[in-house]
Amino acid sequence: xxxxxxxxxxxxxxxxxxxxxxxxxxxxxxxxxxxxxxxxxxxxxxxxxxxx
Length: 52
Known about the structure:
Blueprint: H1 3-7, H2 17-27, E1 32-36, E2 39-43
């Protein structure tokens, strides 16, 4: 890979955070995706019901 490609991997603008969060929600069913303070957080799905 050339140095120019490393410095500028793409010429597109980054997608808005809400678009990224929505895409992650679709790609990771059951996970909780949140945007808090400009940071995207992804939590794994909750554990299934506990047998007692």
